[in-house]
């Protein structure tokens, strides 16, 4: 066994394995001292720790040592110490631990590094959605709400202020097919790619390039919807371009109404060589532009226009406060599909005419 361990185990495992083998030995001696305080099930402690820090070969060796300790206890003390129920508990814990360890070993990870990587990926996805610093008269609120309170969302935002000397703000709100972790992993890949495209191309070139990129992935559920807006921060002129996405809404302070701005275009990742036409407008002082995903307005059995009217009705209530904290408040008040990821982007231009 020493030869096998020397030639099979990785150096990083040997320290942990020796320490856990010693712990298994100690746990095997403790029931002899005081069975009331140290039952045989104490052996699950080194098994659980081993599942976190050992690779599969090392873990199997730990299991063999644990089984040997149980046999030794049985022979020395008899069934008074090693009861069938205790053996079943140890065996069940060992089975669950090896199931988790197999997945971790496939990824080549040790300990809780897998969870750490997921947190890092989630933070990176959120970082891609940070809107660059804007002039004092402009403000942007972004809220992303994953379905079911999960950490990952299929909705994401990319933004830049790189064209024309920082005069143009570009924001894209993307909704990847699916929801939760499955959609979140695809959203992470796409957010990095789309973050590199936005601002590097003319506004009309962003969605066609995003469509071509998505088609090259060859995913079974590879489609996405997106809305892209480019705003001149000096004049307030904007162009909104959509790829199968719900329309945007423009609050016109002069008339006190919401104007639904709907641009037509096919989904991303479905039709090669797709073209996208936009709609234009001007955000004057006091105006706002609202973007959202279908999870905010789609309700099973209802037309989407009903959900949009309801959403804009809630947004109307925020006008008196100049839409302060508007994206969060709109997301909280919406009655869309709570089983779907939801996102809201609110762009405001302060001031008076």
TrEMBL record:
Its EC number is 3.1.3.16. One of its GO terms (molecular function) is protein serine/threonine phosphatase activity. Gene3D superfamilies: PPM-type phosphatase domain (3.60.40.10). The keyword Protease does not apply. Keywords: Hydrolase, Membrane, Transmembrane, Transmembrane helix. InterPro entries: Bact_Sigma-Reg (IPR052016), PPM-type-like_dom_sf (IPR036457), PPM-type_phosphatase-like_dom (IPR001932). The chain crosses the membrane at residues 80-101. It is an enzyme of class 3 (hydrolase). Residues 137-349 form the PPM-type phosphatase domain. This is PP2C family protein-serine/threonine phosphatase. It comes from Streptodolium elevatio.
